[in-house]
Amino acid sequence: MDKAASKAWFRRKRTWLIAVAALLGAGWLLRYRLLHGVGSVLIVADEVHHADALYVLGGASYDRGTHAAELLKAGAAPVAYCTGSNVPSSFKAEGRMITEAQLTRAAAIRAGASPEQVLPFSYGTSTFEEAQGVLLHAKRLGFDTIAVLTTDFHTRRVGVVFRKRFAGSGIHVLVASAPSSEYDADQWWNSEQGLLMVNNEYVKTLFYALKY
């Protein structure tokens, strides 16, 4: 390599290193904004003012049940149905076969909801199965508008799954967001639970996009 070519190669390498350093520096300076954006992409929720029924999906029973009680008190729906037929492993270990639906209902009642307003609907082991069961249930009861309640970072995926499943049914689907008691959605990267939740939700979103 002659002297002129060597100088040109060095300039190109220096320019590349400066560009990489600039990108890394900008990423570091903007890290909190970028991390917040990574989480906020997953949250797509509706304001629920009134629906024929509220369906509280299985999982995160305390958070979803507590928020369901708040929505019922606010008049968002006259009744809530708690879904989910999974039995948490900790309850299985104790020989207590209590489904997610039953746990969520108990949490809602403890939070002040009337037992007559919160009913168990122990159906479904996944979001897809719950969407199938809720569609049949809502059709049978003649509902026009339903609200589906899940945890904040699940709302985008849940909305996609339910609206796709309900397409052509004539039933309007709203998605309500329950805040988590285990992490702050605006600073999810500061807790192990928040990190796990966001990571798992991106994996689930990809899985559902490929499978369904």
Strand-helix topology:
Blueprint: H1 3-29, H2 31-40, E1 53-56, H3 61-73, E2 80-83, H4 89-93, H5 100-110, E3 118-121, H6 127-140, E4 145-151, H7 155-166, E5 172-178, H8 192-211
Parallel strand pairs: 1-2, 1-4, 2-3, 4-5
What's the helix-strand series?
A: HHEHEHHEHEHEH
CATH architecture of the largest domain: 3-Layer(aba) Sandwich
Radius of gyration: 23 Å
The structural domain count equals: 2
Describe what this molecule looks like in 3D.
It contains eight helices and five strands; from the N terminus they run ααβαβααβαβαβα. It is 53% helix and 12% strand. The protein has 212 residues and is of the alpha/beta class. It has a five-stranded parallel sheet. The protein has two domains: 3-40; 53-182, 3-Layer(aba) Sandwich (Rossmann fold), CATH 3.40.50.620. The longest helix has 27 residues, at 3-29. β4, α7 and β5 form a beta-alpha-beta unit. It has helices at 3-29, 31-40, 61-73, 89-93, 100-110, 127-140, 155-166, 192-211; strands spanning 53-56, 80-83, 118-121, 145-151, 172-178.
Features:
alpha/beta; 212 residues; 5-stranded parallel beta sheet; 5 strands; elongated; Rossmann fold
Summarize the structure.
53% of the residues lie in helices and 12% in strands. It is of the alpha/beta class and 212 residues long. It folds into two domains: 3-40; 53-182, HUPs (Rossmann fold, 3-Layer(aba) Sandwich), CATH 3.40.50.620.
